[in-house]
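I'd like us to work through together how a protein chain folds, taking it slowly. We need material for that, and I hope you will provide a protein of your own picking. Go ahead whenever you are ready, and we will take it from there:
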Amino acid sequence: MGFAAHFFFAPTPQETNMEELQRTIETRLKGQEPAIEVLLAERVSAGKVRLVIDHPAGVDLELCGRVTNHLRPLLTEFGLEVSSPGPERPLTKPEHFRRFVGRRLRIRTTETIDGRRSFAGELVAASEREVTVAVEGGLISFPYAVIGRSNLVEG
């Protein structure tokens, strides 16, 4: 699912702070449809942003269209792709990790840890500061600051 649209922001697409963009989108959607949760806003190319959303009743094409319409005033600088989280849901906030303790996930770090930057295993704990994952060979704790990307995995 996806819709072509554009965001208006003064910085160039390369300079836009994705955290700031996500907060702007979250604020706008809270005023329109408070039940929508923005899981992730990520740049997928120089001119395109992917927005992954969730809703208690699920995400369908109609909801993606409504989200695009709610964001229309922001749409002039970027292409916008709105989608559901799918089975490999991104985990970006402490509450996401806490909700899925016991499930398998993949974490890609921003820095090398034990000679690696990609880890997969069972999420065994999640605090406000870090997550702990059971990987082959033991437990590893990852401070949120070093997690570049994380998502659930099947199996």
Remarks:
- The chain has two domains: 18-83, 94-152.
- Residues 1-15 have pLDDT under 50 and may be disordered.
